[in-house]
Every structure is written in C-alpha cells, then in structure tokens.
Amino acid sequence: MRTSGRFAAVSSLVVLALASGTASWAGSRDPVQVSHGSPFAGCTVGAAPGSVLYPGAEVEPSVTANRFRPSEVVGAWQQDRWSDGGAHGLVAGYSRNGGKTFTEVPWPVSRCAPGGLNYERASDPWVSAGPGSVAYGSALVFDANSPRNGVVALTSYDGGRSWRNVTELIVDTEPGIVDDKNSVTADPARPGSAYQVWDRLRLSPDGSLLFTGPTLLSVTRDLGRTWSRPQVIVDTGEFQQTIGNVIVVNRRTGELYDFYESIQYTDATATATVFTRYEMVRSTDAGRSWSRPVVVADDTGVQDVDPNTGAVLRTGVGIPFPAIDPRTGELYLAYEGTDFTGGAYNQIQLVRSPDRGRTWSAPTRVNSDTTVPAFTPSIAVAENGDVGVTYYDVRTLRPGNTTTLPTSTWLTVSSRGGRHFDRERQIAPVFDMLQAPQAGGYFIGDYQGLATAGDQFRALFVTTHSGRPDNRTDVSYTESGSLSTSRTTTASPLRAFRAPARQHPTMRR
Questions:
Q1: Does residue 243 contact residue 318 with C-beta atoms inside 8 Å?
Q2: Judging by DSSP bridges, how do beta strands 149-156 and 164-172 pair with one another?
Q3: What is the DSSP letter of 25?
Q4: How far is Cα 347 from Cα 173, in angstroms, rounded to an integer?
Q5: Which backbone phi and psi does 271 adopt, to 5 degrees?
Q6: Is the pLDDT of residue 211 over 50?
Q7: How far apart are CA 108 and CA 125, in angstroms?
Q8: What is the SS3 string spanning 325-378?
Q9: Where is the composition biased (Polar residues) (predicted)?
Q10: Cβ distance 450 to 458 under 8 Å?
Q11: Exposed, middle or buried by CB within 10 Å (0-12, 13-18, 19+), for 236?
C-alpha cells in the first residue's frame, strides 16, 4: 500500500534455530520456493521523486485452494516493491500438483506486465477460489505521478494458468480520493458469485486531512465476466474510516460477513482517535443489503518494532484476519493486540462467535512465546474444524544484537473452537527481517497467505535473504495436515520492553 506507519527461496546462509521440542505433522513438507526472479526486470515505469525500488523483492502474498480440486493451488504477490507504495506489478503462481511445483504468471494490471493496464504501479493482490476451477483476483492499481487510482478484478478459469476479464471496478482521478485495502471472496454457496470490498478514502487534495472512508462492494454473479457498480455497505461519518475489509461466507446458510477495522478520529488531521475497533456487518441476501455494524473486539495493537533498537516494522497490526468453520459456521477473528502484555507489545489474539456474529468471546492468546512480539497473523479453518494460524515472532533474538533481527515463521493449530493453540510447527528457517524492503518500516507484507483444502493447511509466505540487495525476499509455500504431537518451546531471554505508541495511517498501500 502506498503510505503506512505499520507495517522464498530460503537462504542457506540463515541458520535454522528451532526451539526445543519435537512435533510430528501428518502430510507436512519442507518449504517450496515459489518465486523465481522478476518478470519485470528492466521495466522503468513508476519512478517518482524520492521513491526507492527494491528489484526482485516479493512481498504480501495471498493464497487460495480449491476444495473441489485439491491439487490446485493459486497465489499472488507484489513484485519489485517501491518504498512509497505498490510495486512494478503483481505476479500469480499456480500449482497443479498440490504445491510441489509452481509456475509464475504476471497479472495484466500494470504497465510493466505484458498487455497490462495503463497504470504505473499495483498493490494488494488477493485471490479466492470458487466452485469448479474458477479463481478470482483483486488488485489495487494507481499512478505514482498522478492521482489516478482504482480497484481491478480479474478471473482465471484454468486454475491460475491464465487470467482474463480484467475489469476496472472503480477509477478515481480526483486528487484526494483513494481506494485502498481491497480483497475478494468467492461464494461457496452460490457458484459464479464473488465479492470485492475495499475502503474509499476522501482526503484533502494534498492528502493531509481525512474527511471520511466508507466500505465499497462490487459483486459478480456470472463467474467474473461482469461486476456490479460499487455500492457503500459500511457508511462512515466525519473523520471516520474503515480499513482491511474481508468477507467470509457461511456455505450452509449463504450469509456473508464483512470484517474491517473502524477508526474514528478526533478531527481531520487523523492524529488522534476516539476509538479503533474491529467490526462486522452481515448480509442475508447475497450482498444486496447489510446489517448495522457489530463490534467484534477493541484494537489494542501497538507499533511493532525491533525490541533491541526500536526500528519500525511494518506488519499486520490494525488489520483483521477473519475465518469461518465450513461445517458449523462458527466465526473467528485473529489480530494483533496487547491485552496479554498490559499494552507493552503485540501478541496474536483470537476471538470467536458461535452465533453468527451476534456475540463474541473474550480474546484468546494464540502464540506460544509470550516474552516477545508476535505479528502478522493469518487464519483458516479446515474441514475437520481445526483452526490454523500462521504468524511471525522474534523469539531467537538475543539481548545486545542490534545488527540483525532473527525472525521465525510459525503455524499453530487448535481443535474446533480455537481455545487451545498448543500444537505448533516452525515452517521456515529463521531469517533476518532487517533485510526486508523499507516501506514505512521493514516490510514483507501487511498480510500473508493461508488457506485450507480438506484437512490441510496451505501457507504462502515471505522470508528474506542475507546479502542479496537484488533479491531481498522470496515467496515460499508449505502445507501441513493434522498435528499428531504437541510441541514445547523455550522462552526467549529478551529483556522486557514496551513498544512505542502506534500511529494510525489512513491508507496502507
């Protein structure tokens, strides 16, 4: 995303530093390298005064799996990240053999891509698979040197091999109108239907003042061939906005649930808030009408930083990560919060609703090491009801280390209900976060990808390399079935610390 105060080939130079304990995973496999260099190498489009390009850097992946065709996996990510927002373009990766190998396909949404739309940059890829072999894509597109920006839809009918019906859902050219933080969700209960949501900010022409930022929705009911005119589904008042809209669908009842963060600022400068909280709206008629907002949880997240130096990390703080049990319809929301650290630093928290979002539980802590920050959760629920969450933490960082930030990638699982995340697996070697692109902080994505196929969890995620300025990051894939034994971990010896107060940016490209 363009501005923010928040926030793979696995390098053989990085040491795999596992916490003590062992675990046996049914169907688990080592990470598979998904990204292989940039298809946009040599493209010079998108440069702007003060912008820094990170060639070869992939960030912010999304992934989907087709429950009707388990061998198909489709993902997408930003390729060649800019420091001040977006990338040269977006790239999809597809697998027809259950994630053993992947083939890359550039999305035709920016000028760097063959046959792409006439936009200088693209950001925020999102993918979602529907019944059959249909995959829906969503992208932000914009110019670095003009106010023109919008949201684009595209569709694949062959498991991600090709993408067509590239449709501009909205195009804004007026200074101060910004479309942001989009997602797409295929409807498992209505074949051929899918839903795109995003927030549309109205700022002053110079971007310094926020006036409002409602949620917009566009729907397809014909397999992505055409999309409806965007409509407001969450209206916002003066100095208020939503961000991070994601829809989940109850495949038994057909109900839609849109989750987002709601921020009410004290004034147009957007420097102080009245509240920041996660909310949800419900539709019982396939998106034609929506309920009033329901408060899900308070956002107690703080700025994520390097505990030893205070260097800012741009992570998933302030972004909701929802999921739904495909059999029972129980709703879950994972997010970063400080309820368990007295406001000092973020942990991965989860709330749940067994009654279609009417009431919500108190938070449960997901991550196992409570002594260090944990950040950027993704969540999915398997057919057997197991709840899986991926996240990062810095449990192997030692006091006095100010030159690297060793970062671990985890998948943790709870049985149905999400009450006890006592089964955990490290899914990638430890990597140095300080090798990541700088984009409002060290940045590998506001989100990472996690999906399910049957009882398997399928993760698409970014790690960094050391000493590779021309290829700082790569995208990796792994999958795991049920966990047969528990994993024990050792606590980090890091000293206690308190993260700085968080700024609340209006947009996150």
A1: yes
A2: antiparallel
A3: B
A4: 39
A5: -100, -15
A6: yes
A7: 12
A8: CCCCCCEEEEEEECCCCCCCCCEEEEEEECCCCCCCCCCEECCCCCCCCEEEEE
A9: 474-492
A10: yes
A11: buried
d(CA 381, CA 395): 26
Separation between Cα atoms, residue 497 and residue 294, nearest integer Å: 34
pLDDT over threshold 50, residue 49: yes
**Is 320 exposed, middle or buried (CB count within 10 Å of its CB: 0-12, 13-18, 19+)?**
buried
CB 349 within 8 A of CB 337: yes
Tokens of 220: 């397809």
Q: Give me the pLDDT at residue 493, please.
A: 66
Instruction: Please name the residue that has the structure tokens 């919060």.
Output: 337
d(CA 419, CA 332): 11
Q: Is 450 helix (H, G, I), strand (E, B) or coil?
A: strand
Judged against a pLDDT cut of 50, whether residue 169 lies above it is answered with: yes
195 DSSP β-pair partners: 185, 219
- pLDDT (0 to 100) of residue 28: 61
User: What is the distance in angstroms between the CA of the first residue and the CA of the last residue of the chain?
Assistant: 1
Q: How far is CA 341 from CA 87, 246, 302, 423, 478, in A?
A: 35, 27, 11, 22, 31
CA distances from 131 to 136, 166, 186, 310, 375 (A): 11, 20, 8, 46, 32
**How many other CB atoms are there within 10 angstroms of residue 277's CB atom?**
17
pLDDT over 70 (residue 487): no
3-state secondary structure (DSSP) of residue 433: helix
Q: Taking residues 193-222, what's their average pLDDT?
A: 98
Q: How many residues does the chain have?
A: 509
Q: Comparing C-alpha atoms, which of 393, 408, 315 is closest to residue 14? A: 408
Residue with tokens 């368990």: 340
Residue bearing tokens 């000293």 = 495
Whole-model pTM: value is: 0.94
- Looking up tokens 């034994």 gives 485
At residue 66 the predicted structure's pLDDT band, cuts being 50, 70 and 90, is: confident
The two tokens of residue 93 are 């990766």
DSSP character at residue 435: G
The tokens of 145 are what? 């040197």
| Distance of alpha carbon 201 from alpha carbon 185, whole angstroms | 22
Q: How far is residue 477's CA from residue 76's CA, in Å, rounded to a whole number?
A: 12
**Three-class SS state of 289:** coil
How many angstroms separate the CA atoms of 167 and 153, rounded?
A: 5
Q: What is the pLDDT of residues 312-338, one digit of tens each?
A: 999 999 999 999 999 999 999 999 999
Q: Say if strands 240-249 and 210-213 run parallel, antiparallel, or are unpaired.
A: parallel
- Taking a C-beta distance cutoff of 8 angstroms, is the pair 1, 505 a contact? no
Q: Is 136 helix (H, G, I), strand (E, B) or coil?
A: strand
